Amino acid sequence: MAGKHFIKNIINAAADTVSFFIPRSKKRVICGGWSGDRFCDNSKAMFLYLNENKESLGIERVTWQTRNGDLYRQLKRDGFDVQMVNSLPAVLASARSKYHIVDVCGGDIQRIFSGGAVRVNLWHGIPLKRFGRLCGYEDGDIAGAIIDNLKQAELGHWNYFYILTTSGELGATNQQAFGVDEGHCVPGPYPRMAYLRGDIKHYLLDEETQCAEKLSRLRASGKRAVCYLPTFRDSSSMNEVTVDAVKQLTDWAKENNAFIITKMHHASTGKIDSDSELLVNIPSQGDVYNFLDGADVLISDYSSVVFDFMFLGRPIVFYCFDRDYYENSDRGFNLDYEKFTPGDKAEDIQALFESLKKAVDSPEEYAESYADRTKQVLDYIGQAGKYEITAKDVGDFWSRIESKKKTEKVKRNS
């Protein structure tokens, strides 16, 4: 491990020296997401927002960088500025662009010259479950997390960056999870929330278009849309339970004038049979935020997508068949599960069907029964203190990012 850090430090020092002699332009931005493989979530929404508003923001060039050849070809075909991560143009863009934006890690983009840029991680979820340095540290040990981070080395200095933080209450969580000080937590909403409500123009991949057409057709027939979005488990056997649940839900839909929308977590290896007319199976490269607003009811478990769905004011049912296992043997929870999950908790498939029937048959009554708890959760997670996230709110966040000259090193004594 020490050897890897040494090599990375040597590479960073060389890149920083070269970068010093190459002027960066505040009118250039590079974006990427999900290890360079997918076009979705917060980075996608921010990329589209910046493209739509280049003139008013004074931006000349917004570039998406990817490792996915199929994605590269489609975005290029549709007129977007796109580069393959390991190409020479991407390396030059890394050196010339002032703003480097990701939503997972530095590997989302060409990071070799990220050292002199304003590095921004939009991240991809409210931390209901533990991740990063929330695992292995005592709760609230921000100093320990920062000291550990300062010992690390990542290419392009991506071990410290500005992190989008949706509320002050979550600031301490982000500081510990990412090992950054308070000054690196930038308040703002997730750009995907403005995208969800249609305030940022939607963009679908070719493989998503058929799913969107099928969803519209089923909704037009009068059927209720039930969306099942399970999170990834470290246990393959537990992931198989979620795959089986899709099959059982599709059978349930036949008897209840409904249809199912689903997408297995991108890290899951479970396979779904997409032949059923009552199943809309979002492709692995797809963006759930192209489909989420089409759902009448959401079923999930420990996924942060539930917090986004809460803003729509529709019923949520929690299928937590492995709650004890997940809490004690898998990731565990960062937030109190009971307090932050306003909806019925179903621990087996029959209980799920019963709660689902209530939510589908009487959605307003079901949602109202959890309205007070939902409001408490939304107040806590913030999203810029608003219940309707707009493109203007995304623009306000961007203005805060523009005020940063570069990404400074985290402070040990914070």
Structure description:
By secondary structure, this protein is of the alpha/beta class. Helix content is 40%, strand content 14%. The protein is built from 16 helices and 13 strands. A seven-stranded parallel β-sheet has the order 3-2-1-4-5-6-7, with helices on both faces. A six-stranded parallel β-sheet has the order 10-9-8-11-12-13, with helices on both faces. Helix 6 (142-150) links the parallel strand 5 (118-121) and strand 6. Helix 6 (142-150) runs parallel beside helix 7 and helix 13 crosses helix 14. The longest helix has 19 residues, at 2-20.
Q: Please bin the fraction of helical residues.
A: 40-55%
Mean pLDDT: 92
If you compute it from the alpha carbons, what radius of gyration comes out, rounded to the nearest whole angstrom? 21 Å
**Morphology call:** globular
Q: Give the helix/strand class.
A: alpha/beta
Largest sheet, described in full? 7 strands, parallel
> What is the chain-wise order of helices and strands?
HEHHEHEHEEHEHEHHEHEEEHEHEHHHH
Distance between the termini: 26 Å
Report the total helices.
16
Report the portion of residues in β strands.
5-15%
Give the strand tally.
13
Uncertain spans, ≥5 residues at pLDDT below 50? none
Task: Walk across the major sheet and give the strand order.
Answer: 3-2-1-4-5-6-7
